[in-house]
Write a structure and sequence with these properties.
The protein has 685 residues and is mainly α. The chain is elongated, with a radius of gyration of 41 Å. α12 packs antiparallel against α17. Helix content is 73%, strand content 2%. It starts with 16 loop residues before the first strand and ends with a helix. It comes from Pampusana beccarii. This is PTN23 phosphatase.
Length: 685
């Protein structure tokens, strides 16, 4: 794009410190850090020194030197206390991530690299916190929340990189892949935000974050397809160009819908992008329609844009002297034991990384596969909905049950209207017949008197009284004709709704019987049952995988061999590590079995889904008919008051017109009688 609009970023609040029996000056400087890079440096130094301290002095849970550590939980504002120095470390690490997120979000992004680095540092802090500390300390440091934070930070870092790539006019395909990766990170974050457990933990901010992230998903998907369209343009694939630009426009429109309530900066960015994409699409479509005439492929026949992750969680190293400074507790415990403990921790971390890489790869395949099938185990058949009347319809039935004369009143009202309408029409017809008869008699008189007959179609001039009657009759006929159309439409509307109103006023069993329901064969039911069974297996596999992962993390978290390391010779360290790491072999076997089972489960699900296709189509058609029927019945109920009102207005109108027509008829009769008397006098003479 010619310029790069910028979206707002999400940042996290810092936790507030409470009681901790530590040097007051040190504590104060560590918890009241300035909101700048210097503050990040202070937190890193304090975190590193706490790491050195806890490795030498027994200040952990239920250890001899443990003291209360109190911090405020972010979402509830409650003070949470643990007698564990690792809790102090965890909270400092959380604040490090939060401060980096704040600095990244508040940066004006004059230089995208600065914001990108802040967000990667934030992701690194939250990743270290997730992988090295218990998740039970407080809600804001639970596994779900930390995963959410990590994906948000990585997404925002990639977003900064995307802005720079567009400003640098990088190749369209690369920009599309970078943008697609932004979408992938935000989709992961959105899955977490949509999780009911995570939503309950976050509280009121969940809704705001979810709205912004959902909007960004569609927005950056639009940017990705915009640049895929530009690449197609460069390759002179003009049909592909049209479909990519059209898809970009569709996704941008979805983003605009989701952006209601967002700040003006977001609206401006969306308007700017709409101008770019709208112009590209219009131009591409016009060129293809009038010049190139290339077939426009379906979007799902084109290869999906694979994201290019160019950012990562920058690692936290609590023992890096360049960051932490000199170890102020170096003399308290043998450094060899500390170094060995760090090496063992790295072995555990490596084991966890290897296992998690396999799990995440399988999860990605599973998520993509399930997204492509669009199968929800809870609503895969929707058969329960057909066993009862929906609440919206039940409400209408209940309302009509206390008004039993609804249909009767409507029919009577329309009958009265029809009667008045017929009376008016009869009066106007009689007036017209009297005028025509008088005209005919006048012609005969003129012929008898031997006068030259008037030209064909030109009647002799009537008397002034009859001329006035004729004029008024024409006016009433015109009004009647216009009202007649409205009356006809009103009767059509009544006939359309009266049957539905009778149905809604009747027994509920009849209402239920009127709603469509699927007619499934035994084979269809067997197909459904098999599909639901396999979907249950998929969920069972997911749950077991999550449980095993959590067990592995907890085992690693609790695995402290410091005591053994102090009494082990350096030459025996490697052997000790190998022996200690064997404790993880069994759970690794279980995880491998779980991951290996995925291929067979997905194959079975694919076969079941193929058989389900015809049933799915039939159920979708029945559901559409069911929804249409419900909407039609509701519409009939809601049309009742309007029909009654218009019927009354019609009665009032025609009652007034009837009075006028009756008077005009009397006037016409009198005028015709007078004219006839005059003709008789002329004949007698």
């Amino acid at each position: 794009m010619e310029a790069v609009p910028r979206m707002p970023m999400i940042w996290l609040d810092l936790k507030e410190a409470g009681e901790f029996a530590f040097n007051a000056a040190v504590k104060k400087s560590a918890v009241n850090v300035p909101r700048d890079f210097e503050g990040c440096s202070t937190l890193r130094k304090y975190f590193g020194q706490l790491h050195y301290l806890q490795s030498r002095i027994p200040m952990g849970t239920e250890q001899e030197a443990a003291v209360p550590v109190a911090w405020t939980e972010i979402f509830s504002g409650k003070t949470v206390t643990h007698e564990d120095i690792k809790y102090e470390q965890a909270c400092i690490l959380y604040n490090l991530g939060a401060l980096h997120s704040m600095l990244g979000a508040m940066d004006k992004r004059v230089s995208e690299e600065v914001s990108c680095t802040h967000f990667q540092c934030a992701a690194g802090a939250f990743t270290y916190l997730r992988d090295h500390f218990p998740h039970s300390y407080s809600v804001d440091m639970s596994h779900q929340i930390l995963n959410l934070n990590i994906n948000l930070m990585l997404g925002q870092a990639q977003e900064c990189l995307l802005e720079k790539s567009m400003l640098d006019n990088r190749k369209s395909f690369l920009v599309a892949r970078i943008s697609a990766q932004v979408v992938d990170y935000y989709k992961e974050a959105c899955r977490a935000l949509e999780n009911s457990e995570t939503a309950s933990l976050l509280g009121k901010i969940q809704k705001d974050w979810k709205k912004l992230v959902q909007m960004k998903i569609y927005y950056f998907a639009a940017v990705a397809h915009l640049h895929m369209g530009k690449q197609a343009e460069e390759q002179q694939k003009f049909g592909e160009r049209v479909i990519y630009f059209q898809s970009a426009l569709d996704k941008l429109n979805e983003a605009i819908k989701l952006a209601k309530g967002q700040p003006e900066t977001v609206q401006e960015a969306l308007r700017f992008t709409m101008d770019v994409i709208g112009g590209k699409y219009s131009s591409a479509k016009k060129d293809n329609d009038f010049i190139y005439h290339e077939a426009v492929p379906a979007l799902d026949t084109l290869q999906a844009v694979k994201g290019a992750p160019l950012v990562k969680a920058l690692p936290v190293n609590p023992t890096d002297p360049a960051v932490t400074g000199p170890d102020i507790f170096a003399k308290l415990v043998p450094m060899a034991a500390h170094e060995a403990s760090s090496l063992y921790s790295e072995e555990k971390a490596k084991l966890l990384r290897d296992v998690m890489a396999k799990i995440e790869a399988k999860n990605e395949v599973l998520d993509q596969f399930m997204d492509s099938l669009q199968l929800d185990p809870d609503t895969v058949d929707n058969l329960d909905m057909y066993s009862h009347i929906p609440p919206v319809l039940m409400e209408k039935c209940a309302a009509l049950s206390v008004r039993p004369d609804t249909v009767k009143n409507l029919v009577q009202s329309m009958q009265v209207l029809s009667g008045v309408f017929t009376d008016v029409e009869a009066s106007l017809k009689e007036i017209r017949d009297l005028l025509e008869e008088d005209e005919a008699q006048e012609r005969k008189l003129q012929e008898l008197l031997g006068k030259v007959p008037a030209p064909q179609g030109s009647p002799p001039p009537p008397s002034p009284a009859l001329a006035e009657v004729s004029k008024e009759c024409a006016k009433y006929l015109e009004v009647h004709e216009k009202a007649s159309f409205t009356n006809t439409e009103l009767h059509k509307a009544m006939n359309l709704h009266i049957g539905n109103l009778r149905l809604l006023s009747g027994p509920l069993e009849q209402v239920r019987a009127a709603l469509p329901s699927p007619a499934l064969t035994e084979d269809d039911k067997q197909v459904l049952q098999n599909l639901k069974r396999i979907l249950g297996k998929v969920q069972e596999m997911r749950d077991q995988r999550m449980s095993l992962e959590q067990q592995l993390r907890e085992m690693i978290q609790k695995d402290d061999i410091t005591t053994s390391l102090v009494t082990t010779d350096r030459s025996e360290m490697k052997k000790l590590f190998e022996e200690q790491l064997k404790k993880y072999d069994q759970i690794k076997v279980y995880l491998e079995q779980n991951l290996a089972a995925q291929e067979n489960v997905l194959k079975a699900l694919t076969d079941a889904n193929v058989k389900y296709a015809a049933v799915r189509k039939a159920l979708a058609e029945v559901e559409h008919k069911w929804n249409t029927t419900v909407q039609t019945l509701v519409a009939s109920y809601e049309a009742y008051e309007d029909l009654m009102k218009k019927s009354q207005e019609g009665k009032d109108f025609y009652t007034d017109l009837e009075g006028k027509a009756t008077k005009l008829l009397e006037k016409a009769r009198a005028a015709c009688q007078a004219a006839e008397a005059t003709r008789q006098q002329i004949l007698e003479k």
